[in-house]
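Example (one chain per record):
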Amino acid sequence: MLLSADVRERIAAGEVSLAFRRWRRPTVKAGGTLRTPVGVLAIDAVELIEPEAITEADAVRAGHESREALLAALRPEGALYRIAFRLAGPDPRAALRERADLSQAEREELARRLARLDAASRHGPWTRAVLDLIAQRPATLAADLADELDREKPAFKRDVRKLKELGLTESLERGYRLSPRGRAFLSASRAR
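Predicted structure:
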């Protein structure tokens, strides 16, 4: 479930706690969580509804000025869902990616995990090339980075998410950058 920067800021401020989406099938489920740049959202409810069931108060809780504005912002196709959520806490990856003081054991564990990702890949080793490229070209569109590596954008983005799970990269409004942890790991691995 994508959330605009404005909506994310309003979630962090406690102003937004609902979303409405038209989907063929929901991309979140009640009881689940969603990691966002402002923290982890706990998904409290996902309900299939009719447009007539949306109230003015719902529209405001979803970050819109009015019910009409909310309805106008929805895509025209798909079933309509009302998603209730709350900010549950910080994204644990945020603290992880800030940890640049890597011990030898942590560097070795990261190297092992990256080697496993490379070994499991259908297109061969990729982790070092992606880390190096992001280091050289921060804030570059994913499509441009993927083209440079002769990769499809969706597969490239999936791979970058794997690096993000390890705390090595972070997403920007446009593209990515290495986290402090990622820079420290890359610097230590180059020094060998």
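Caption: Residues 93-191 form a domain with the Arc Repressor Mutant, subunit A fold (CATH 1.10.10.10).
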